[in-house]
């Protein structure tokens, strides 16, 4: 057993030579590590408890799968004991510090796995995730943490924490790498009682998506985290997202059940034989948490499960009209000293936005978002329904690359984005454009839109800050739209069309002077690309603002045009 202080207690076991079964396969050439509650044949498994240690007879199913895919295994990593904790300090082998600032926590329980990825020692690492252990360390170390849908990766050969909701998780510095590993690792395993075959959504969310976020997010006084989340929401909106505030009360109630109800009996059941015989060998506060599950009766557990099912029913309507939820991966980032002084309360804070996810059978992906003014990393988590793993990865990659961040603590730039495995219908990006005159439905130039695959999205109005003019000597007749000061304009009828981004350049090239394409403010406060006119071209043009739109103007002039063709 090795505690390598030069590597901040991240490694618990490293063999003289890595384990590799083949150099071929989809993961050929990649190196990885595994959390030390995952079996590797012939190596010790400790779950960060020396008295619990045994030598594994065989590889865990996921380890064998990854070795067969060509990856080489370089060692086992430290963790919060029995995967019970979200902070990385609950190990007799030492606390794993943050890869960016060693005075702060790494997050847990998969602390060592996150650290060795963030510092570039391996290409990816396996963790486990019951209540956030595969996400919090990612968010706190500027890396990606992929928590797949439950049962997607076999957990056979993993020391359970709460077996019914455990997941094997993946850490990497890029979303594409994490998705590559997931593609190699997934598969039904009949020997795992909770393994299942899932039909994963293969169509991305698209250029426009709607995401829920906490209506009243809690950051426990950490204003740097609050500002970082506000920045993240704005970036998602810039990527085409529409933010929808959601009452997170039901998710909070669900999260509270993990340790505050008979559900904690799952923690006790997972190691019952060892715990009953060697309770004193378990460190605090893990001992108290596991022991709290012992007094509950079977009836208590059934009542808790029924309560959880009721909360799931209450959560379901919140998803209507949403593609995903977005939360801070962790709402604050304490120091190791503060965590040791108040280990239960501060650990609970770290799980505020993670504890409910597995209980409600969701998929999740933590991605780096920014560095706070104090230099600490901040991440967000994209949460989707069960089976949305590839969709989350596609959007997560778009988001991660929009941040301009480097990889982990390495300082290396992000590589080019890669296609996400499992997405068979990658929809091309699309752009919206507002039209006000000859491009309206049924008008002479509408074909310039339809022949480029454009579709009508909505009929709406501009904000009341525009004036509309009938331009003289144009063929076909065209209007000119001019932005004016507030109080000097009117609401002008427009249509919003959407076309493939690949066609947008050729469309804009057809726009003749004095018209141009710029940003239009709509009546609902949003903005979209649309037609505007140079002010000088409006000299001598008829002001038709009072008619409210081009169609109304043409209707008002129709008799005159018939009488004087």
Automatic annotation (TrEMBL):
Domain (Amidase): give its ranges: 23-392
Q: Which UniProt keywords apply?
A: Hydrolase
- Show where the Allophanate hydrolase C-terminal domain sits: 431-555
Q: Known EC number(s)?
A: 3.5.1.54
| InterPro entries attached to this UniProt entry | AH_C (IPR053844), Allophanate_hydrolase (IPR014085), Amidase (IPR000120), Amidase_dom (IPR023631), AS_sf (IPR036928)
The portions of this protein that span the membrane are: none
* Keyword match Hydrolase: yes
Annotated Gene Ontology MF terms?
Answer: allophanate hydrolase activity
- The EC category is hydrolase
Q: Does the keyword Hydrolase apply?
A: yes
Q: Name the NCBIfam families on file.
A: allophanate_hyd, PRK08186.1
This one is known as: Allophanate hydrolase
As recorded in Swiss-Prot or TrEMBL, the protein's gene is named: atzF
């Amino acid at each position: 057993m090795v505690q390598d202080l030069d590597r901040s207690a991240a490694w618990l076991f490293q063999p003289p030579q890595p384990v590799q079964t083949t150099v071929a396969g989809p993961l050929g050439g990649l190196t990885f590590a595994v959390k030390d509650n995952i079996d590797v044949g012939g190596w010790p498994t400790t779950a960060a408890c020396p008295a619990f240690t045994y030598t594994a007879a065989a590889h865990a199913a996921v380890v064998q799968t990854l070795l067969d895919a060509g990856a080489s295994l370089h060692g086992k990593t430290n963790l919060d004991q029995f995967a019970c904790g979200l902070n990385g300090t609950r190990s007799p082998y030492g606390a794993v510090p943050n890869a960016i600032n060693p005075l702060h926590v790494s997050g847990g329980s998969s602390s060592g796995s996150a650290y060795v990825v963030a510092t570039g020692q391996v290409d990816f690492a396996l963790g486990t995730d019951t209540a956030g252990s595969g996400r919090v360390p990612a968010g706190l170390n500027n890396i990606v943490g992929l928590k797949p849908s439950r049962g997607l990766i076999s957990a056979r050969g993993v020391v359970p924490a709460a077996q019914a909701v455990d997941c094997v998780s993946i850490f990497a510095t890029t979303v594409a790498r994490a998705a590559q590993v997931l593609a190699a690792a997934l598969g039904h395993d009949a020997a795992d009682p909770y393994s299942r075959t899932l039909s994963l959504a293969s169509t991305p969310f698209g250029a426009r998506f709607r995401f829920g976020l906490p209506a009243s997010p809690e950051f426990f006084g950490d204003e740097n985290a609050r500002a970082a989340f506000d920045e993240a929401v704005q970036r998602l909106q810039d990527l085409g997202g529409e933010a929808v505030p959601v009452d997170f009360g039901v998710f909070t109630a669900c999260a509270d059940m993990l340790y505050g109800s008979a559900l904690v009996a799952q923690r006790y059941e997972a190691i019952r034989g060892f715990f009953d015989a060697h309770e004193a060998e378990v460190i605090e506060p893990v001992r108290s948490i596991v022991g709290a599950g012992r007094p509950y009766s079977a009836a208590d557990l059934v009542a808790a499960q029924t309560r959880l099912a009721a909360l799931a029913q209450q959560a379901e309507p919140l998803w209507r009209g949403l593609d995903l939820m977005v939360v801070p991966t962790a709402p604050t980032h304490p120091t190791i000293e503060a965590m040791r002084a108040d280990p239960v309360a501060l650990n609970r804070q770290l799980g505020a936005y993670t504890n409910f996810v597995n209980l409600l059978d969701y998929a999740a992906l933590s991605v780096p978002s920014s560095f706070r003014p104090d230099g600490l990393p901040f991440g967000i988590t994209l949460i989707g329904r069960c089976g949305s793993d590839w969709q989350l990865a596609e959007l997560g990659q778009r988001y991660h690359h929009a941040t301009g961040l480097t990889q982990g603590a390495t300082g290396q730039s992000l590589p080019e984005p890669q296609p996400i495995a499992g997405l068979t219908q990658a929809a091309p990006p699309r752009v919206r454009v507002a039209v006000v005159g000859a491009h309206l439905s049924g008008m002479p130039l509408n074909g310039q839109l339809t022949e480029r695959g454009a579709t009508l999205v909505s009929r709406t109005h501009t904000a009341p800050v525009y004036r509309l003019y009938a331009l003289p000597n144009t063929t076909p007749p065209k209007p000119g739209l001019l932005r004016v000061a507030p109080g000097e304009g009117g609401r002008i009828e427009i249509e919003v069309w959407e076309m493939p981004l690949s066609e947008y350049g050729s469309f804009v090239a057809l726009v003749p002077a004095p018209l141009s394409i710029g940003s239009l403010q709509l009546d609902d406060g949003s903005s979209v690309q649309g037609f505007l006119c140079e002010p000088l071209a409006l000299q001598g043009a008829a002001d038709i603002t009072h008619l409210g739109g081009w169609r109304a103007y043409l209707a008002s002039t129709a008799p005159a045009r018939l009488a004087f063709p």
